[in-house]
Amino acid sequence: MLNPQFLVLFGSQTGTAQDVSERLGREARRRRLGCRVQALDSYPVVNLINEPLVIFVCATTGQGDPPDNMKNFWRFIFRKNLPTTALCQMEFAVLGLGDSSYTKFNFVAKKLHRRLLQLGGSALLPVCLGDDQHELGLPSKFTLLFLQEAPSTGSEGQRVAHPGSQEPPSESKPFLAPMISNQRVTGPSHFQDVRLIEFDISGSGISFAAGDVVLIQPSNSAAHVQQFCQVLGLDPDQLFTLQPREPDVSCPTRLPQPCSMRHLVSHYLDIASVPRRSFFELLACLSLHELEREKLLEFSSAQGQEELFEYCNRPRRTILEVLCDFPHTAAAIPPDYLLDLIPAIRPRAFSIASSMLAHPSRLQILVAVVQFQTRLKEPRRGLCSSWLASLDPGQGPVRVPLWVRPGSLAFPETPDTPVIMVGPGTGVAPFRAAIQERVAQGQTRNFLFFGCRWRDQDFYWEAEWQELETRDCLTLVPAFSREQEQKVYVQHRLRELGSLVWELLDRQATPSPCQRTSRRP
Questions:
Q1: Does residue 276 have a known ligand-binding role?
Q2: 152: pLDDT confidence band, cut at 50, 70 and 90?
Q3: Which residue numbers delimit the Flavodoxin-like domain (predicted)?
Q4: Which of 110, 172, 174, 254 has the fewest CB atoms found within 10 Å of its own CB?
């Protein structure tokens, strides 16, 4: 007799919906049910007409928007030409993950539920709406087959987009961009380390416009990788191949075959992230130590959520630190469960701070290195920003996996349209790209309100702004919040000078030197 089969499809922006979906998959396998778990955009949506039972787990982002990994599915499912009987054979359930403090609480889940009904689907139960404001996880997904010796052919490395490739770089095939420079742009006495980083994207096929973002795939530090392997008793140089337990499950494209344990921990497992409740649930199942298992079960219970918050979420304790706190359990974790237990490192998005019109074959970003203190002795550090800051192209070649996607900022295409930009701190990065692009196109009606603490410490691109002002290509209104007794912020400058900006707009009737220069043949 065949086991019942069903499909779990998720749309996740920060990983929560994916985490819940993976928990559903583990629970199904524990109950001997056939279950596939996939991101909505990785699933061939035309096959949905053949699925008898589907569970949709969806987050809502921004102002009622679908997550990035379900936007293609979202556009398809709302096509007006789809017949009303398209999904008449499918039974489904929709679980929404949202936050009731937002106006469009679980908007995506509600809208998807209605659309599936319109297409003939049969709902197993009303739409389920999870609320992050409310007080209120078995077989492994993969098997690690260890190799006794290194293979005679092939070499370890991630799938990358090579120069001259027909396809643009993507998450599955990023471009290994050479880092040209990594310069600190805040003063030595300033509390915040901010870096201007430049990459060479020659031959990558990457193109971008003002407002677009670059996604960077970071790695764990060598010290953390070594500590993780020690705590779990793993040989960093041990090679293995990854084998899915289920026929419809594919291996992560970011992992080479064969792969070393060092590569897995360095480039894939997010050991520096704060663990979710499901981490403690699975860890308790794997624990053989009575006292540690008891505590893990407490953390994973509904009654233990307040204590878990105080132990883990409030101080931002990482997965690696938790494993160090439960050494007997950590040492007994079967390697097969590593990919079930620890989420994958997610790419980080940065606003592109340069224009290809001003810097051909180059891509620049402005990165604030995240570091802060909690009650834990060790400072909390942002994984990607700290990793980027540690890279020094002056000590040898450095390559960073990256790709580009369209951003949410859009700038007018008509040359006579003025643009007022408000960019305090590192938030000015996309506006620098826009100003460079607009000036190169002869568009001079650019107004920038910029705010920082000190003129001599964190006034990013001061000389560049001043040079553009002398060419009448930019009107700059700065605000330095710590240079006087009474703090002055950008919003104060907006109130003071907003009317003056409109007067300047009315007066700009003749072409500036910048415009005349840009129109020369």
A1: no
A2: low
A3: 6-151
A4: 172
60 among the known binding-site residues?
yes
Once rounded to an integer, what is the mean pLDDT over residues 486-495?
A: 66
pLDDT of residue 418: 87
Q: Is 330 annotated as a binding residue?
A: no
Q: Please state which CATH class domain 419-505 belongs to.
A: alpha beta
Annotated binding residue at 56? no
Q: Give residue-wise pLDDT tens across range 86-118.
A: 999 999 999 999 888 888 889 999 999 999 999
Measured distance CA(49)–CA(211) in Å, rounded: 38
Contact (Cβ atoms closer than 8 angstroms) between residue 202 and residue 363? no
CB within 8 Å of 22: residues ≥ 6 apart: 37, 141, 278, 340
Task: Find out whether 106 is annotated in a ligand binding site.
Answer: yes
How many other C-beta atoms lie within 10 A of the C-beta of residue 304? 17
62 assigned to a ligand binding site: yes
| 235 assigned binding-site residue | no
Please state, rounded to an integer, the average pLDDT across all residues of the chain: 88
Domain 5-131 architecture: 3-Layer(aba) Sandwich (3.40)
Q: Please name the residues in contact with 51: beta carbons below 8 A apart, sequence gap of 6 or more.
A: 7, 90
Q: How confident is the model at residue 317 (pLDDT cuts 50, 70, 90)?
A: very high
- Break the chain into its structural domains and give their ranges: 5-131, 175-201+350-405, 222-341, 419-505
| Of 254, 272, 223, residue with least CA distance to 385 | 272
Residue 302 assigned to a binding site: no
Q: Of all helices (H) and strands (E), which one includes residue 94?
A: strand 91-98
Tokens of 101: 């403090």
CATH class of 175-201+350-405: mainly beta
pLDDT at 132: 79
CA distance 225 to 219: 10
Fold matches, 5-131 and 419-505: yes
59 is in an annotated binding site: yes
**Share of residues in the chain with pLDDT > 90 (%):** 65
Q: Is 519 annotated as a binding residue?
A: no
* 170 annotated binding-site participant: no
Query: How crowded is residue 163: how many other Cβ atoms within 10 Å of its Cβ?
Result: 11
- 18-69 residue pLDDT tens: 999 998 998 888 888 889 999 999 999 999 999 999 999 999 988 889 999 9
Mean pLDDT of 9-13: 94
**What contacts 124, CB < 8 A, 6 or more positions away?**
91, 92, 93
What fold characterizes domain 222-341? NADPH-cytochrome p450 Reductase; Chain A, domain 3 (1.20.990)
Q: Is 350 flagged in the annotation as binding? A: yes
- Please state which of the ranges 133-137, 287-291, 334-338, 348-352 shows the lowest mean pLDDT: 133-137
